[in-house]
Specification:
By secondary structure, the chain is an alpha/beta fold. The protein has a single domain, classed as 3-Layer(aba) Sandwich (Rossmann fold). 33% of the residues lie in helices and 18% in strands. Strands 1-2-4-3-5-6-7-8 form an 8-stranded mixed beta sheet, sandwiched between helices. GO terms for molecular function: hydrolase activity. Keywords: Hydrolase. Pfam families: Abhydrolase_1 (PF00561).
Amino acid sequence: MSQPATATVEVNGHACRVWTKGQGPKVGFLAGLGGLPRWVPFLDRLAESRTVVAPSLPGYPGATGHTELDTHLDWVLAVRQLLDKAGLGGADLVGASVGGAFAAEMAAIFPERVGRLALIAPFGLFDDKEPAADPWAQRKDVLPGLMCAEAATWNELVAPPEGANSVEWPIEMTRASEAAARAFWPLGNTRLEKRLGLIEAPTLILWGDRDAILPPVYAGTFARAIKGAARVETIANAGHLAYLDRPEAVANAVLKHFA
């Protein structure tokens, strides 16, 4: 697969990588846990008919600056800056996992900056009756099977990309985990349910039927709380990061929603 174009924008004085590929109307993508150490087939499928813009969140692979963000408000404002500087103001937006929570926040708090919305197993909620798993409390050998339906899929994502320093790469991935923890620990709960009623954007909610991090019943909670038209679609044989497990199925659902 051909590589995306790479640019850099500055958020709070720190560099954040922005990858762009494709043609057609813009669609933004905020990645899930682990970020985007490499370009993935899901984004290639979207890029067949859309211009895909994938900015790296602070602290994730391709970006620095997460230590500047101490509160949830800090993170929300940083994500807004990132999307604006990446040229995504008003564009359709896809967010997965931790990125899905931020995408939902953008649609709720800055509705004029989001066109249509697609959320893939977003963080942000917690239900005592159906508790989420804590990804930061897992043994290293257990985590891959929680992230994806097939552990090898996660391992492939986080393996050192071409040209990466083998010594520094594990540190970079630890930094990404720390960044996510700063925003979502404990248990991914940001009280997002209080703001879902502000979302008027047409919203597609996708959930892997084998998600071992966030129970699939959370999808219904999102759909019922969002003010705008919202529907749920289950992705068969997919885990938490369904766009890695089933890139074609997830991309087809997203493109149909955005059509």
